[in-house]
Amino acid sequence: MTEHVINEADIEWTDYDHGKRSFRGKRFTRASAADELGCSLYEIDPGKRGWLAHYHEGNEEALFVLDGGGTLWLGPDDTDHELAAGDFVTMPRGPDGQHELEAGPDGIRYLAVSTMNDPDITVYPRQNQVGLYSGAPPGGEKSKRRLSKYLDIDAEVPYWDDGDGESGE
């Protein structure tokens, strides 16, 4: 049975290393009995960045800085905000919630919280791509996903294409 009370020390770190995007996280939700809330602990080393700049169409996110600080670029205009311990940031659904985080000279340790609405679309404006998720939202149990794809944002096929190469019009 999944637990209602868990301890951070009992959850293993997951390391993410993609060059300047290098961080580690503990996904509390996966170890808990939560169904509609997501919560993870993240640490980013000095000068490194976390996830790619993105926003969600189906989920709202928030973060709470526990230790250290860094720069958060928020919204479609990438407005920069200097973060420090104790800061709480909300990131709404849609372009106003676009965000990217870089750790300052002391690194940053923060909690990330999310609604866990399913399905979800994640938009990565700088990469011109989208992520499509169904069955489990981002941060949810991957084995439960029926759809998990990253596509070029301009990928499109005609609606009436029935697969035989003709549009059916």
Structural write-up:
This protein has 169 residues and is an all-beta fold. It has a domain at 8-118: Jelly Rolls, CATH 2.60.120.10. It is 2% helix and 47% strand. It contains 1 helix and 11 strands, in the order ββαβββββββββ. The chain has one helix at residues 28-31, and strands at residues 14-18, 21-27, 37-44, 55-56, 61-74, 79-84, 88-91, 99-115, 120-124, 129-134, 147-152. Strands 1, 2, 3, 5, 6, 7 and 8 form a 7-stranded antiparallel sheet that branches. A 4-stranded antiparallel sheet has the order 4-9-10-11, with no helix packed on it. The longest helix has 4 residues, at 28-31. The radius of gyration is 18 Å and the shape is globular.
Shape: globular
Tally of individual helices: 1
Can you summarize the main beta sheet?
Answer: 7 strands, antiparallel
Amino-to-carboxy terminus distance: 53 Å
Number of strands: 11
What is the average per-residue confidence, as pLDDT, rounded to a whole number?
92
Q: What is the CATH level 1 assignment of the domain at 8-118?
A: Mainly Beta
What is the string of helix and strand elements? EEHEEEEEEEEE
Helix content: under 10%
pLDDT < 50 runs, ≥5 residues: none
What proportion of the residues form beta strands (DSSP E)? Answer: over 45%
Structural class: mainly beta
Could you tell me the CATH topology label of the domain at 8-118. Jelly Rolls
CATH homologous superfamily label of the domain at 8-118: Jelly Rolls
CATH architecture assignment name of the domain at 8-118: Sandwich
Radius of gyration: 18 Å
